[in-house]
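### Sample
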Amino acid sequence: MTGSTPAQQVEMIPIDRVAVINPRVRNRRIFNEIVENIALVGLKRPITVTRRSEGEEIFYDLVCGQGRLEACRSLGYAEVPALIVSADQEDCLVSSLVENCARRQHRALDLLQDIGEMRKRGYATAEVAKKTGLSYEYVNGVSKLLAQGEERLLRAVESGAMPITVAVSIADADDAEVQNALQTAYEDNLLRGRKLVAARRVVEARKRRGKKLRTEPHRVAKPLSSEALVRAYEEDAARKRALIRRSEMAKARLAFVTEAIRSLIEDEAFFGILEEEQLASVPARLAQRIPELVGEDG
């Protein structure tokens, strides 16, 4: 981390004096697991902060460990163990962004938005690539897509459905040239099979719905009333009765066909004609129902 010095030791600091300078929305299930684990065995890994002064008061900016910090707060901790490093607020923010980039489980677009945030703060593409361990081409492409508001293409890149180079080509193309961009990607072996199908769907959705992603509001299921339960039961029973009727009809038709074939094969003259024309074979399952044909090839 630029401008920082290694932490010397763990200190207990007031938890209400720690500020999160790059807050993230956490996955609720994972957060609950962190809380449960800390409640059972305590905080095994301290958070990392930098110290700052406001007059005679001492405060701290979080460098990494937001999930642990929030878990301790939810458990009512007054103090939290922390490693104190020396760094300015800008370095703390960059370290927090780098940590988010390195996190394996992040929300869709978090990694990409963090790259954009570092670029907004004046870091050159080469610097961002070096700090995050990502390629220059990837960082440059993401920055370009972010600047153009291409959220739909960014999500495709994030999910692995589309290489960053193809996404940039599509973003730079007008409507008439987008298909040419996909064709070129196919010829260059960048999009094949399922990836090509997925890319076409993204392009179609982008054309119909725009570049931005629209988050659907969460719908809370309403509890079923007794009338609704009865209606659902009656509909299910009706479907099952219809299924039984269809199965009985199929059974009756099979019996009719079986008897018809049995009657025909009992006619020696007719059966002889079938044999001469090589039409005497029947499906094996049907032959099993007619003793006279058992052993014949189906």
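The beta strands are 10-14, 18-19, 47-54, 57-64, 79-85. This sample (Chromosome partitioning protein ParB) is used throughout the tutorial notebook.
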